[in-house]
Amino acid sequence: MSSAAQRTNLYLQFKEVGGQSFRSVVQFWERHEQDINGLDLPNYFDLLNEYARALFELGKYNSFLEVAEDILELAFEYNIQEWDDKDVVQHTLLKKAAAHFHLYEHQQAQNMLEQLLRLQPDHKTARLLLERCLYRSQRTEDQKWRSLTVLLMLSSALLVAGELIVVRPFFPDWASVIEWSRNGLFILALFVWTGGELYQRFHIKKRCQTLIRNL
After folding, report:
1. pLDDT at residue 46 above 60?
2. Residue 87 is inside which H or E element, if any?
């Protein structure tokens, strides 16, 4: 850009657009990226973070992750500690973890959270997100008790159908036995589901605590 006045005007225009919508922020950045790159470091870093926030809020997580890397590199290179009254490194690591989580990249999300928890072991949001990450990851890996629940539910449904079509019309004496059986299968399915969920949540919480303790 040719003058300090033009750079200041561009910065103020961006901040004004930022009050309108996240989509406007992204569009403004894409139209003026070359000029924005010519801003002095404090203003450029401010706008870069605004752009990253807009990408994240719009669900453009892959693009956000690329910009987040630039933010961290600048923060480490120039020892920038805060942005918008937040610890810039911790805030960016948390958002990176959340982006990976939304992309179902659980291992990458866990890596970001481990880095953050090394810096701030008592970070409540990071702990909660780590638990959610471990829970979702475990859920996709261990489906045995869910499969058993589905099997029990299907068996109960088949007994209902058999009771209505065969037992009651032709073997009414067996109706009460079938009724007790199908109700028993249904209740057992609920117990298996509830027990599995409770066990998994307890197991993941303990695993999370152990992981954090060993960082």
Report:
1. yes
2. strand 86-87
